[in-house]
Structures are given as structure tokens and as C-alpha cells.
Amino acid sequence: MSMTYLGKAVSRVDGPAKVTGAARYAGEFPVPELTYGVVVSSTIARGKITRIDSAAALGVPGVVQVFTHENRPHTAYLNRSWRDEVAPPGAPFRPLYDAEIHFSAQPVALVVAEDFETARYAASLVRVEYEQGPHTTDLERERGTAYVPPKKRNGIAPPPDPRGNAVEALAAAPRKIARQYVSPFEHHNPMEPFATTVLWQDAGRLTVFDKTQGVQNVQSYITSVFGLKAANVQVISPFVGGAFGSGLRPQYQVFLAVMAATELERSVRVTLTRQQMFSFSYRPNTIQAISLGARPDGKLLALTHEAIGNTSQHEDYQETVVNWSGLLYGAENASFIYKLVKTDWASPADMRAPGATLGVFAIETAIDELAYELSLDPLALRLANYTERDENDGKPFTSKELRACYQQGAERFGWSKRNPAPRSMTEGRELIGWGMATGAWEALHMKAAARATLRAGPMLEVASATADIGTGTYTIMAQIAAETLGVPIEAVSVKLGDSSLPKSPIEGGSWTAASIGAAVQAACETVRGKLFKLARGLENSPLANADIEHVEFADGTIRLPGDPSRSVPIDRALAAAGTEALEAEETVGPGLISSRRFSRNTHSAVFAEVRVDEELGIARVTRVVNAVAAGRILNLKTGGSQVMGGVVMGIGMALHEETMPDHALGRFMNHNLAEYHIPVHADIPAAIEVIFVEEHDPEVSPLGVKGLGEIGIVGTAAAIGNAIYHATGKRVRDLPITIDKLL
Ligand code: MOS
Hints:
- The protein is α+β, with helices and mostly antiparallel strands and about 750 residues long.
- It folds into three domains: about 35-135 and about 190-240 and about 245-280, Alpha-Beta Complex (Aldehyde Oxidoreductase, domain 3), CATH 3.90.1170; about 145-185 and about 280-445 and about 595-740, Aldehyde oxidase/xanthine dehydrogenase, molybdopterin binding domain (Aldehyde Oxidoreductase, domain 4, 2-Layer Sandwich); about 445-590, Aldehyde oxidase/xanthine dehydrogenase, molybdopterin binding domain (Aldehyde Oxidoreductase, domain 4).
- The mean pLDDT is about 95.
């Protein structure tokens, strides 16, 4: 295969559509005779609606209907057993199901009007009376009620088995630390709010434009909840303005818009407000305890990691928090506990590297603390405990170039010039700190399908029902297709985000590049085979005696390398055969044996520099180097941007992000982007350097790809916290590290 596009810094193929505004988002699709739904949210966290009065709202000219639990159609929830692809065990939240209130800002009514302003005004007139119940929203106060979830969540590894006797080993260890770390609620806050536009057509056919990471997941949600036929429901989501995991599950505006459309037999759009975006989907609040016992030379003897996370009353939301400690460090004695506490909040949701961001923050801070305890360099301590196997189950990795990440990251950062003593590096009135941490994430390959269609031109279309949430899926699909069939990337069109396209899992877990990539390549290879047969079969074909292993597909031709006379243009092959299009659809899944034999992970080493002005309590991140080993990198530009974006989100996690609950009200208070702080440009250093460490891994997925969407955030907050300790001598163990905690 001639290497034209793969591994290069190819610009986004969807870039022009995005910057010119041609890309349409769920709340923007023009639909004739559209009505607008506005959601009314509950003001209490727990209790019952005793009275709901829509009369005033219904009296406003232009209001079409007000839906509440009292008049919602009975056609909804026909199938009470629906579960979406990522639902944790429990009972999924059902909007407008009954009078019960399960969390603050739960949707209690939908006002539908001929225009948005009328709907919004009328929504303010809906009167709701409640019988308030006692709510519990405080994880710290409720930690005594923590329980081990009785049912495991699909796809989430339970904590690893204990090794040796951690309690005894800790007691006997010559050096030890025991620490507690706390992480706050965080909300995903993608730029684009959740929105659903339902185009209602005759005969009950629905076209649903939704903001989602899984069009087919939303389609099956709609068909099972409303008892509709799959053939009558098409879900479309070509562009997603960020999601970070909040779009993995169908959100409540999907239900409300489809309910209103089917009941009114009208097209309906429901867009959530920024404040309503805070009523569901968040990274859980956690408390983690870590104990480490070690020899003076740094060898770990004992490790315990316990995490408690909050969940809702109705679902046991689970993520993988404590396993990362066991994966990374080979203490002979170790124990791992993961528990949940039920709270009167909506269910948490996967948020970029769910579980790993939290667990790795804790272990990588604790390792740093142990390094100071032992007077060892934090990097040397990690190397002293480096493992070649997944210590949780003894399996080898398909590949693990973490050592090279440490080495290349340290070299680029200049780690060897670090003065180990806290408060030892200053410039002007600023303290300078250098910290580092390890990152790890999963490298999954999921079963997925893609279709390739080659036409004269040549023009090539590749299609799959997957999503591009800003990650670069369009671009890598185009690169792989162009590369495999030897056509310019400009000749490739990519279709995705449409439930009628070949089957794809939700876009998540950083598995899309590996999984959809493999399917696109397989479909294109099948087309390649068909095309070669046509070319060879031409009368007096220049390729008459050639076989497919020896030809190359390049510049829109099939040719023998080094012999320009033996070449057939794609167009000629198609025309001569009288074939309008060559098409193939292929499904590629993971190798089962390899899944069982190997652990599959990405790794990284993050190095951060901070400058702290102690008088003001302000910490700035001034430099980050993130060295990542993620198998083959398909696109240096979009891949580099994924890691950089992860680092930015990690800076937010370390210094800014925190959704603040008022436990008296059971309600999030800073539910807007003015008071929920995310990093802005001024918070982000010009120098975020991403190093892709070479990692050859034919085992992990057909393309050798591991995925990059999530690894960039993992470890970043710990590296920054460790740098702040190095700068100031102050260890902040509850995130985010804000001014008040530093002063
Ligand atoms: Mo990711 S949290 O699987 O979108």
C-alpha cells in the first residue's frame, strides 16, 4: 500500500462545512410548519407533584399543547423493558411517567407552541405544586450507606481480585502513606446543547434530528419506548457540537420531542437550555482512599485503593475507578474496593475517560506523595515499579510503550533539570513547579460495519452509522478509503450519523477509529478486489497476468509499480465492464481469542509546569508535555488535537471545573457557563506538546490503532496537582485546586 494519507497531518474534511456554517446541528435543521417545545423543570429534588395547572399556559395564543404526566400519551412506554446501549443496571428515568420527582430540575411538563418565544413564555405560566420529600444529595454525609453494586454494568470491569494480604503488608511496610482524595461533580458542558427536531410525516413516519453519539441507539430507544417500527424511524446526526460522553444515552428531550410529534401529528423541536444541561449527565462525585506501603528503595509492597461514587436512586451507574492502580503497579499485596452511594440526583454519565480520570488522579497523586516520603524522584519511583504485564490478571499487553513515554516525555520536558525540593524553583515572585503523572485508558475494538461505493470519476463514498463528535471520524474514514483505493481524498465522500447506514456501536470509549476504521478498510478492500478483477478482465488488459498482491492502487489507477505502461484507470475499468458502481459492505469484529489472552491499553506520561503567585493564590499551567503510546496514529493533526483537547480538559479538572451543590435545596447552583468554570484561552499555555511514541501493535486491531479520544485527559490533573505541590509544598487533595485552597 502506498502511504499517501495515513499517519499524515490531514486537515479535517468536514472543516469547511463547520467554519462556513453549512454543517447543520440537531436544533437547526429547517423543517416546515415546525412547533417548538419548551421544558418545565422541577424546583424540588424529591417528592411528588400534587397539582399541575396548565390552564394559563394553554390560554396563550399560539400554544398548541401542554404535556404533563397527567395527559402524556399512553402509547409511550409500551415496552417497559427498554434499555439503551449504555444503560447501567436499574430503571432508566422515564420523563413525565408519573407524579414522582427523582431529582432537581427533572422535566415535569413540555409546552408546545407555534413559535419558540410563545412556548418559552407559556412555560413560565405552568403552575406546579409539590409535596416535598426529604432528599439526600451529600456523598460525604451518606458515605456510611455505600454498597457494592449487586449487578455489574455491562462493559465495566469490576474491581480486580485482591492479591496477597494488603492489611498485613501495610502494617509491616517500613514506609507508608494513607491519603484521601475527593473529586467534585463535573458536567460535560459541550458547546452545543441537547436538541431534537422531529420531522413528522404522513403515515407516522418520523425523521429525528438528534444530538447524539449513537443514532441507532436512539432509534432503538424510540422504537421500543413508543412501539414504532424501525422502518418508520430514521435518526440523523451528521454533526455534534461536542459531547464528551453526554450524548451516549438518549436524553430526555428525545422522548419529549417524539412524544409531542406523534401525539400532535406535527413536527416538533425541543432544545434544552444551558441550565437544563445541568439536570442530567455528569461525572460523579467521588471519595477515594489510597494506602501505599514500600521499601525505602521504592519497591511497592502493598497497595489499597477504595473509591465511593454517587449514583441516582434508580440506577447503579458504574465506572472503572480503582482498577487502574492495579493495572499500573505490581504490588504483591493489594486490595480494591468500589462502592456506590444512592443520592437524589439524576444518574451520572460517562464523561471523557470515565473512571480513569478519577482513579488515575488518585493513584498518581499518591505515588507522587510516596516519592516525597521516600525522597525519590517521582519518575524513578514509577520506573522502580514498572510492570510488563497487566498486574490485575497477569495478562500480557498487546503492547505497552509506557517506558518510552516516560523517557521521551522527560527528555522533551527537561525533567532531569528539576530540583526535587518543593519551593526550590522561583522566578520573580512566582514559584515554579514541575510535576508528572502516568495515564492509561482502554484500547477497544468493537464490531462495526461500513459500506464503500466506487463510481466513475473516480468517486468513492464510505458510510457507517457512527458519529463524529469533533474527534475526526469523517477525516480518518476518508483517509483510509482514499489510501486503500488509491484515489485522492477529495474524491471521497463520507456519510455517517444516520441510522439507515451500516450498523455501528455508539461512538465512545475511544474505540471508533480502530473499529470503524477496520470496517472501512475491509469494505474498500472488497471493492478493490472487485475492481482488480474488472481491470484484469479487460480486453488486452495491461494487467492480464498480474495478481492483486503485486499491483498498486494509486492516482486513480491500478498499475504495476515501476511499469507505467501496465496501468488501468479506475474509470476505464468501470466503463468497459458497463458497471455503474462497485459496492461492498463489510462487518469487522474483534478477534475473540486475542481479547481473552491480552490486555489492551493506551498509556501516557504527562509532564506539567505551573507557576504560582502565592500572594494571589493563582496557579497557572505554563507548559505541558504529553507523551502518548496509542498504537498507530492515523492522523497527526486530528489525533494531536484529541490529546491536546484532553489536556485542556485535564487542566479544567485540576483547576476549574466543579458543579456546586446546595444540599439544603438538593440543587446545583452554578448551572451556567458564567459560574461553572471551564478553562478559557488565557488559562491554557501556548506550549502543549503532544508526542506520539512509536508503538507497533498488529494485535490490538486490524489497523494497529488504539484510539486517542480519552487518553489525553487521564493523568493530566495529577501531573498539575503534583506540580503545584512541587511549587508550593502544599498538597491539595480535593479538586479543583482553587485559590481559596492555595492561600
Ligand atoms: Mo466517551 S465518555 O465513551 O464518549
